[in-house]
Amino acid sequence: MAGSPVQVTGTVLTMRRVDAYHAMTVVAPGIADRFRPGHFVTVAVGGPRTSTLTRRAFAVHDVKPDYGGTVELVFTVRGAGTAWLADRRARDPLDLIGPLGRPFPLPRDPASCLLVGSEYGAAGLFALADALQQRNCRVDFVLGAASSDRVFGALRARRMAETATLTTRDGSLGVRGSVVDVLPGVIADTHADVVYAAGPMATLGGVTAVCADLDIPVQVSVEELMACGIGVCMTCTVPVIGDDGVTRMTRACVDGPVFRGERVRFGDLGTIPFDAHGAPGGDRAR
Amino acid sequence: MPADMRTYLAHVELPNPILTAAGCAGTGRELAPFADVTRLGALTTPTITMSPRAGRPTPRMAETPSGLLNAVGLQGPGIEAFLSRELPWLAERGVRTVVSIGGGSVAEFSALARKLTGAPGVTALEVNLSCPNVEDRGRVFARDPSAAGEVVSAVRTGARYDLPVIAKLAPDVADVVAIAKACVDGGAEALSMINNPVGMAIDVDRMRPALAAGTGGLSGPAIRPLAVKAVWQVHAALPGTPVIGMGGVTSGRDALELVLAGACAVAVGTVLFHDPYAGHRVLRELEELLQERGFDRLADAVGLAHRPSHRTDREESSL
Q: Does A281 contact chain B (CB < 8 Å)?
């Protein structure tokens, strides 16, 4: 088992730029030991007297055994919190909690796996690719973004996977369009048995629709705004259909972030579906 | 010598004054990997409602300077699931548990109190008065002294005599003291303050409200001065009523500020999102601060700021 998450004060080992992104390696032994692909970590930003109280959640790009265990996070500066994070330098302390969430389930027997990543959501898929290859699975990648400098991990994907298909919205790299546009063709070419996807919600919804058409199982790692990452704040909820067929507002942080794609009601994001458990008026309808 | 940190909510003794605020500590299970929840003075549950609630649509949260706007909408499984799944977990571990309850009518509050009164592991009931009253065009109970008093009295009647009833007050009211008095007259043994004042943020990139619900409750250090003021005013008017102070506490110094204003217990809330170990850290810091200032007992510091200041230091008492 993955074990329970821990809160540690890690030490920044390296900071580097990867195209449009920042990649930060932090020495955090307790987290690295427990990590499995699909887990995420949260970081407290702004230092001890911070005015930004919510933790920032990041997929883990890589864990390594160096210095007792390191984790690497990939992020882009989107606000005050990530700007602070981008200013960290080697040896700075960093408050980390992890590993959090439910990891990607891995196939029991060797299978052909297609990994679909959009923008820096792709970062979380490389540890998964390693784990799949160790199980003798075939791994193919589809990576996409708005422009070439935002396609994360293209080189590594090309090196490790059977095939790597790249897409950009502006056509500056690979196929012009989105990862969803090329997906049916790539699934046919690679004879994919299962699809794993990470990225913005709109992309995940598109990927899930394609996989549903082709009747292929799909695991998605969702992105929803989180404040705590440990299941107390109730802000990262997503309408998800449970094993009993009932839709619940489900916390992405503790019950996800990985869900079976067809269980997530992508069309109802940003709403409370009328048939959800505890929806307004639901007790009167029944 | 470390200060005696014991405190009382009505007749219930707590070993220390640090609680968690409603809706900020989950049901204990979520915090347990990071901090020993049995060592808290008490854990307050999220507000429990009669039937399951799906809450509000997302986005439910927006970060603001030193604060957080939230519109979760009391998502929860309802009282039956709480009694069968969540409360037993807390009771088995001996976690002192304050159950926050919320309803849309006086009858619902009273039914919740009756259901909880025999349940093992309930230390006290906290009445979340910041619920809209469906019988009064959605007017919030906390805004109206008579409605607040009526709800508290219904809960007091529904609950067994030895289960303390705490009324949780909102700060964005015309006269918090009038509400506090109405609650105490209705039978509240203690008061907790403050609940989130209502605020709003607009995302200037999307040019739409940041929260799906439009408005939300503001929490975090941004509201601490509101909490200090409410605790101060209520303690001055009702010095005999125990007050649980809360609102933006992130450190022992913040907790001490509320204690000096008149709170005999302090709850940590939003800071738990930032640091799940914050309750224990705040307790340790508060203990150290009391010790540094020469207090033998927490109780001696409660409401101390109300006394006129004098120039003599404690060391000079040998005269």
A: no
